[in-house]
Specification:
The complex is a heterodimer of chains A (343) and B (1246). Chain A is of the alpha/beta class and 343 residues long. Chain A folds into two domains: 2-247, Rossmann fold; 260-341, Orthogonal Bundle (Helicase, Ruva Protein, domain 3). Helix content of chain A is 38%, strand content 15%. Chain A has helices spanning 2-9, 24-35, 55-62, 74-86, 116-123, 147-160, 178-184, 196-204, 261-272, 279-285, 291-297, 311-323, 330-340; strands at residues 19-21, 45-49, 67-71, 91-95, 136-141, 171-177, 205-214, 218-220, 239-247. In chain A, the strands form two sheets. Chain A has a seven-stranded mixed β-sheet with strand order 4-3-2-5-6-9-7, with helices on both faces. Chain A has a two-stranded antiparallel ribbon with strand order 1-8. The longest helix of chain A has 14 residues, at 147-160. In chain B, a hairpin with a 2-residue loop joins strand 5 and strand 6. With 1246 residues, chain B is mainly α. The chains are: A alpha/beta (343), B mainly alpha (1246). Chains A and B meet through helix 6, helix 7, helix 9 and helix 13 of A and helix 6, strand 5 and helix 35 of B.
């Protein structure tokens, strides 16, 4: 009831809509999911994004997990801090917001916005090489209104090895809406779900579904207590899905590098902007004139549509483009640079 | 001011479809910040134009954009589902939809509407596919078997999927003959019928409105295609298309009488009477009545063949039995070519003595404001120009030639720069490339036409084919290639390009039509006589230009045939045509990729590439030129600029406006009222309006357009010299791109840059793009000015929907910035007279922005004091002390300095002939109108309606008032009031006060305040929000205190508009001069055009959509005030004309010769008093009560009662003191402002 009171308290025009775990059963399920898979002797620190009333936090602490709680709302901060004080360093509470990390502007930042190096310093985690084990696990429920935006921003950070990914392969465990999960895990040729986001996430991460939970299991801070389930026309959307996104160890093993990943993202976005168009037409329309030959080499049919190509295919296509001299033309880079800033 | 300029520029491009819309203007959509965009939206819908440019991605749409779940609706409990289904299945006649929706709980409504919207979109797409690729074979033999079976198939299909609401919507739609009929009757030319139709239509809402909107689009498409065939003289094709629809019972409802008439006309041209007889019997079979135009076609046809008098008699008899009169044929039908003569010949077969009906007596406007102006006995002769008839005739020929060519190529001002060998080489390469493109594009066009005609033969009708046959093929090619040279290196949105191409083809088509229908010959003949009114050696006097033109037309017996039949293409057709041409262009143009880098192998790559730019969930398709081509263009530094002929000021006096569709340019299609694409309601409103009511507006526009201009050459030369050197940002001369900041040299590939370097690179690019667009804008203006340097020219005018007037040529006109204004002079010179030199000096000081709070005498004294600086500026503008550069408007100040120098050095300054325009500005004109409406004494004083020895400053006054409130609050211990001590100044409140008139809300006002406070370094940041919140409240209170009636009036206007919009209607009113106004704000609806290269999402706004309540209500007060200030301007213009003054205006800034400033000032004040002596608000209230709440309807809905109450409670104004006496006592009698005082107020306009 205290939880509910707190959540209800979190209303007002400036407060964003949030979803919380309030039931201990769900908390336990999540805790088990989070701990599953990893060896018991190496348990990296868990960064819990927006714990709110702290139901899950307590469950995790009881299970012996080291937790860093990143909370943006001062309404919850006090409670969490008193919990922090009652423990012996197993919990660390930070005032901040995972999705307001590394703001683009310059100048001093005020919490909850902060820089990632600040965060990691406070957490006491040092950067590890990309191929090393996961240094930090992150758990959170994605803010519904910004869900897609967040997924894009994380992608850019992942491919550029910037922000939190500068510290290694951070494992992301997120509750996302079912329709977005369907997008992330879509197969080629799926007319509705197979998107640029799909390709880029599948190339970048291993995607693992840990758990599905109906929307109604979560508590929201909306005024009328409504669930505010995002509407969807084509994809099922009855659950929130707990998804584990683990950056691939071999992501940068080939000729794809953090330095040249922008054109890759750009290429994929451009291709899938019109999924029914032919891949060869796309390539030709950018004056990458050896399109036909390239496709032949990669054993891609000449009449393939952009949505037919699997994520790995895009990666190989890009690597082939890299090695040919086509990408030396500067305009492609310029456009790539420009287009990314508009997410 | 810059905002105004931007809007003017946009308005210009919006109207001037043909003018090569420069990307520099239109690119704003991507560079403007969201806030800027929001601000513009708030003020003026016109800028919406830019928003239209967004193309929507299906993919993202499916993922994240707001959408509705079909499954959701189905899952909804029975109660909610029932009204929904009712609404969907609603027959158009019973129309229970709105009621059903009112009963349903509030929340599902959004879903229902959204779903319907999407359904409709899809439906339209389906329908379009049908109409484009109608796969049925052309039923040559009128055999009905095939179409029928096709229709059956369609029906069964519909049945199959009837479970889903989608199919139900589709079915309801395709089976609504009633809606089709109402739309048909709407198009009937007879005014009474149209009126009836609109009345009937008004209460209809919901489903049907949306349907009829799409219905109309389709109907227009058919009609315009038929007109193409008429133009192409292919009656067989026209009939084929008609039969395609006629023979299908499902599609027949798209045809109205006009469609049949067009086909009849095309047969009439060829003299095939039996075909027309067939069509008449077809008409009968579908239950349509032939109208006047049908008979005109029959008679014309008979005039072209040999027929027996018996046949003629039969048709004439039938015409009479249908309730028409033979005279009406000649009074109402718009004949083309020699149609009229043919009809007359036929009539004379049966009535040998038939005489043409006498032209109708010219009607005279009855507005009480213009009784004097129009009274015959006081008519004064029209002021003559300094040209002879012969000279004007010659100028007319020049202008005609210009417009016949459609485009004009001029040398840019950069031509004077020396040519480098590199440039010569680049130009040669460009020329050879262009030659290649010419061939390849032509081939592509021919190929695609062949494909289409093959397809057409095989399977019916191709939508675009006729539109690709209208012009000679070479013209299509040159229109397409023109696009290339103006393409921005940053890329241009596909929507913009497609629209530009489409409208260029349309404009050219209109020109050809005018030529072919011999309309031009007639205009030429009338114009030849018309100039006698204007020429110094011409005889006629005592006419207004419009009156004289009408008289000449009547005498020549042309009747209404000088007007071209309405033949605009639906927006969708234009877009599709544009997209098709664009696709051809992209396919056909290639460029060698090794221009930039000779090491690369010489291979041809596409010149244009299609790329998406992403903006959150939207993506905009762009077309970019290959960088090699941009580079080549830059190297060639070509100095030729090509403009549409309508972008150049006219070389002869414009054709006077005589109707909403006739006036301004000789050939270029110009509308009296500018509108955004697809918004036809203004034009409909104007056409429904009695002609005499429009006379004052037309005459005022003619007066503004008849002002002759010339170039101030010395000033132009100085500006061009700076422009061709390195520009000067301080003097508002944009520097060339070579002055742009350079990004730091990149080490290696761009991907190796660090984040901050990337950031910097982006900033540099952005800055360069901005600079380039500013530079191009200035280049266009200066080049046109330079082109006209030795000529006399005219700016034809039209107006926006509120009656604000604008010159038609978009780039170079007197509404432009300081630079453009400085190079314009009146062509007519007048002696300075005794006070002229003083006015010049005062004008100069006004331009400097100094001495704003001083009296005129003090300003004059100051000018005399600094005479040395003035003369120095005039003599050595670039080498001397450069006093002029320090002023607010440096270039106009410089021009004025030069004029003063010349005048003061002439032997007799009073006799010095000056061409210089002197300005008089209204001080916070919007508030002036409010203060006068409400007769606020304090307010009137603060905006200079009351005589005072020095000009009053309303901003300081408000600041003082706010400071007083603050002190009071601070004493009572209000924390924020104490914090604000010492921070309240004129500057802080100025913007908010200025924008109050234009409807700024508390929200917007607070943002403005916050910005101002942020600029003050000492202000503690943590109080920003609270302080701005407090301040905006106090400013509003202060204004309320000073202009006690203003807020009441504003609130009344807002509240009325809200109720009107909520009842599903748009806000309409009539200005005191009789101009009908409708606010064109609708809930936007976009249609997806499925084109090969990309899906285009096009917003369309037409009269059948629901009004946008927020915009309707927020924009009403400012629009109403604008309609008043435009009325004041027009009244002043007309009365200045009667006094023989030269007069032009930039909204609330009036220009005339120095000699006549005093007279103009007097007229301006007189007309202000006259205007506000009218019962403005009472008239408004009565008009709206009549329009929206006319009694006599059986059911008076709740909203109507509420609206009636609202509209009846007119706020207190000078005329209605009685009712509010009590209230006045309560607030303490502040005294009432006596309107007559304006007459003696020096600083009212100064």
């Amino acid at each position: 009831s205290e939880t509910e009171w707190l959540v209800q308290h979190l209303q007002g025009p400036a407060v964003p809509f949030r979803r919380f775990i309030a039931c201990p059963r769900l908390a336990r399920t999540v805790q088990q999911c989070l701990q599953g898979g990893a060896s018991p002797d190496h348990q990296p620190v868990l960064l819990e994004y927006a714990p709110g009333p702290g139901i899950l936090t307590r469950t995790l602490l009881n299970a012996g997990v080291r937790v860093v709680a990143l909370e943006s709302s001062s309404a919850f901060l006090q409670n969490l801090q008193s919990l922090e004080n009652s423990l012996d360093g197993q919990l660390k509470v930070i005032h901040g917001d995972l999705f307001r990390l590394d703001p683009l502007g310059t100048g001093p930042v005020k919490p909850p916005a902060m820089y990632s190096d600040q965060l990691f310093e406070t957490m006491g985690v040092a950067a590890v090489p990309w191929r090393a084990d996961v240094p930090v696990k992150v758990f959170g429920i994605l803010q519904q209104r910004k869900e897609r935006n967040i997924l894009w921003r994380l992608l850019f950070a992942l491919y550029e090895c910037s922000s939190i990914f500068r510290y290694g392969r951070i494992e992301l465990n997120f509750f996302i809406s079912e329709k977005e999960y369907k997008v992330l895990t879509a197969k080629p040729k799926d007319a509705r779900a197979y998107q640029a986001l799909t390709v880029l996430w599948q190339v970048g991460c291993e995607i693992q579904l840990l758990h599905m939970e109906p929307w109604s299991s979560f508590v929201t801070n909306s005024k009328n207590g409504g669930l505010a389930v995002p509407k969807t026309m084509w994809l099922p959307n009855d659950h929130l899905c707990l998804v584990r996104l683990t950056p691939r160890q071999d992501l940068f093993a080939g000729s794809l590098k953090p330095t040249n990943s922008l054109p890759f993202i750009f290429t994929v976005k451009q291709c899938l902007a019109k999924p029914k168009s032919k891949l060869i037409d796309r390539l030709n329309s950018w004056s990458l004139d050896k399109g036909g030959k390239l496709l032949k080499e990669l054993e891609i049919p000449q009449n393939a549509r952009t949505r037919d190509l699997c994520p790995e295919g895009y990666r190989r296509l890009f690597e082939a483009l890299q090695t040919s001299d086509m990408f030396t033309e500067t305009w492609f880079h310029d456009d790539a640079l420009e287009s990314i800033r508009n997410i | 001011m810059s905002l105004l300029r931007l809007r003017a520029a946009l308005a210009g491009t919006a109207r001037l479809r043909g003018a090569g819309i420069p990307w520099s203007v239109l690119r704003n959509y991507s560079s403007a910040s969201a806030k800027e965009r929001a601000r513009r939206n708030g003020i003026c819908e016109r800028t919406e134009l830019l928003e239209v440019l967004k193309a929507r991605v299906k993919q993202l749409q499916a993922g994240s954009s707001p959408e509705l779940g079909l499954s959701k609706v189905e899952l909804g409990d029975a109660e909610q589902q029932e009204p929904l289904q009712q609404a969907l299945a609603a027959g158009p006649q019973q129309d229970p939809a709105p009621r059903a929706r009112q009963e349903s709980p509030a929340w599902p409504r959004g879903w229902v509407e959204k779903m319907k919207k999407e359904m409709q979109q899809r439906q339209l797409k389906v329908e379009q596919r049908l109409s484009i690729a109608a796969p049925e074979p052309a039923p040559e033999s009128q055999g009905e078997a095939k179409p029928k079976s096709k229709a059956k198939a369609k029906k069964t299909k519909a049945k199959k999927s009837q479970k889903t609401p989608k199919a139900e919507v589709a079915a309801a739609w395709s089976q609504s003959p009633a809606s089709s009929q109402s739309a048909c009757s709407h198009l009937e030319p007879r005014a009474a019928a149209a009126k009836k139709a609109t009345k009937v239509q008004r209460p209809q809402q919901g489903l049907k409105d949306k349907d009829s909107n799409q219905f109309k689009v389709l109907q227009q498409t058919i009609q315009s295609s038929l007109e193409c065939f008429l133009f192409l003289q292919q009656p067989e094709e026209a009939e084929r298309l008609l039969l395609l629809y006629h023979n299908s019972p499902a599609k027949r409802r798209f045809l109205d009488i006009n469609c049949y008439n067009i086909v009849m006309q095309s047969w009439a041209r060829k003299g095939h009477l039996h075909r027309i007889q067939c069509l008449l019997s077809m008409l009968e079979s579908v239950g349509l009545q032939p109208n006047l135009d049908s008979y005109a076609a029959v008679l014309e046809c008979m005039g072209r063949t040999l027929v027996s008098p018996k046949t003629v008699r039969r048709y004439v008899q039938q015409l009479r039995t249908d309730g028409f009169h033979v005279d009406e044929l000649f009074q109402k039908c718009l004949f083309e070519d020699d149609g009229k003569e043919k009809v007359l010949k036929v009539i004379r077969i049966v009535q040998p003595n038939y005489q043409l009906p006498p032209p109708p007596e010219p009607e005279i406007c009855k507005s009480s404001l213009l009784q004097d102006f129009y009274s015959r006995d006081k008519a004064v002769s029209y002021p003559k120009l300094e040209f002879s008839v012969e000279e004007l005739q010659e100028r007319f020929q020049q202008q005609l030639e210009l417009e016949l060519n459609n485009t004009v190529t001029i040398q840019s001002v950069e031509a004077s720069k020396p040519l480098t060998p590199q440039a010569t080489q680049a130009r040669a390469l460009l020329a050879s490339l262009r030659g290649q493109w010419q061939d390849s594009v032509l081939q592509a066009l021919q190929h695609s036409k062949r494909q289409m005609s093959k397809f057409k033969k095989a399977s019916g009708h191709n939508l675009l084919y006729p539109y690709l046959c209208l012009l000679p093929e070479e013209e299509y090619v040159s229109i397409m290639l023109q696009i290339l040279s103006s393409l921005s290196p940053q890329g241009v949105s596909l929507v913009v390009l497609a629209r530009e191409l489409g409208s260029k083809v349309y404009d050219r088509y209109i020109t050809l039509r005018k030529l072919r229908s011999r309309q031009l010959e007639k205009v030429q003949e009338i114009y030849g006589d018309y100039i006698h009114l204007l020429a110094k050696d011409g005889q006629p006097k005592e006419y207004l230009p419009r009156e004289y033109w009408e008289k000449l037309v009547a005498e020549a017996g042309f009747g209404p045939s000088l007007n071209l039949k309405e033949c605009s293409w639906p927006f969708m057709v234009q877009m599709r045509l544009g997209m098709h041409l664009l696709e051809l262009l992209v396919q056909a143009t290639k460029v060698p990729r090794n221009i930039l880098n000779p090491r690369l192998e010489p291979k041809l790559v596409p010149l244009l590439y299609h790329i998406y730019s992403f903006q959150s969930s939207w993506q905009v398709g762009l077309l970019k030129p290959h960088p090699a081509f941009s580079q080549l263009l830059a190297e060639a530094a070509e100095t030729e600029l090509t403009f549409n002929s309508s972008a150049i000021p006219m070389l002869c006096p414009p054709v006077p406006w005589t109707s909403p569709r006739f006036g301004a340019f000789l050939l270029n299609d110009t509308r009296l009222m500018r509108f955004v694409d697809g918004a036809a309601q203004h034009q409909q409103l104007l056409e429904r309006c009695p002609p005499a009511d429009l006379h004052p507006v037309l005459d005022a526009l003619n007066q503004l357009g008849n002002c002759a201009w010339r170039i101030n050459r010395p000033v132009l030369d100085i500006i061009v010299s700076i422009f061709n050197a390195r520009g000067d940002e301080k003097l508002d001369i944009p520097p060339p791109l070579s002055e742009a900041p350079r990004p730091p040299a990149a080490p290696g590939s761009p991907s190796a840059l660090s984040k901050s370097q990337k950031q910097e690179l982006l900033l540099c690019k952005k800055k360069a793009a901005e600079m380039h667009s500013l530079r191009m804008d200035a280049l266009y203006k200066l080049s046109i000015a330079n082109h006209l340097r030795d000529k006399v020219f005219w700016f034809p005018h039209n107006m926006d929907f509120r009656g604000r007037t604008y010159p038609c040529p978009p780039y170079f006109n007197h509404l432009g910035n300081d630079v453009t204004r400085a190079i314009l002079l009146f062509a007519e010179g007048r002696p300075l007279g005794p006070k002229g030199l003083d006015w010049l000096k005062i004008h100069l000081i006004n331009l400097t922005g100094l001495k704003k709070k001083n009296s005129l005498q003090e300003r004059l004294d100051y000018a005399n004091e600094i005479m040395e600086d003035i003369l120095d500026s005039a003599d050595r503008p670039l080498t001397g002390r450069k006093w002029w550069m320090t002023t607010d408007e440096p270039w106009q100040a410089l021009a004025c300095c030069m004029e003063i120098a010349k005048a003061s050095r002439s032997p007799d300054p009073a006799a010095y002939i000056s061409h210089f325009p002197v300005h008089q500005d209204g001080s916070c004109n919007g508030l002036q109108h409010y203060a006068a409406l409400g007769r606020d004494l304090i307010g009137a004083i603060s905006v200079n309606l009351m005589p005072c020895s020095v000009p009053q400053d309303v901003y300081s006054a408000v600041a003082q008032q706010v400071e007083e409130f603050r002190r009071k609050d601070a004493r009572q211990g209000v924390k924020i009031a104490q914090v604000l001590q010492g921070f309240i100044s004129r500057k802080v409140v100025k913007q908010t006060v200025m924008t109050v008139v234009y409807g700024v809300t508390r929200y917007g006002g607070r943002l403005q305040m916050e910005k101002r406070l942020k600029e003050i370094d000492e202000f503690p940041e943590e109080y920003l929000w609270e302080a701005s919140h407090y301040l905006v409240k106090q400013v509003f209170n202060g204004i309320k205190e000073m202009f006690s009636a203003t807020r009441d009036i504003q609130n009344w206007l807002t509240e009325s508009a809200k109720l009107i919009a909520q009842s599903g209607q748009t806000v309409e009113w009539v200005t005191p001069l009789g101009l009908p106004i409708v606010q064109p704000y609708y809930r936007s609806k976009s249609t997806v055009l499925n084109c090969g290269m990309q899906h285009l999402s096009v917003k369309n706004s037409s009269g059948d959509q629901k009004p946008n309540t927020v915009k309707q209500k927020n924009a009403f007060p400012p629009n109403f005030i604008h309609s008043l200030d435009s009325t004041h301007m027009m009244l002043t213009a007309l009365h200045c004309l009667r006094q023989g003054l030269t007069f032009v205006s930039v909204h609330d800034c009036y220009w005339t010769h120095a000699l006549t400033v005093d007279v103009m000032n007097q007229i301006c004040r007189q007309q202000f008093v006259a205007l506000h002596s009218e019962r403005i608000l009472q008239d408004l209230s009565e008009f709206m009560l009549e329009k929206y709440c006319s009694p006599g309807r059986e059911t008076r809905a709740q909203w109507q009662k509420k609206l009636t109450e609202q509209l009846s409670s007119v706020p207190k104004t000078g005329r209605t003191q009685g009712r509010n006496c009590q209230a006045q006592e309560q607030f303490g009698d502040k005294g009432e402002f006596n309107l007559e005082e304006v007459m003696n107020s020096t600083y009212f306009f100064s």
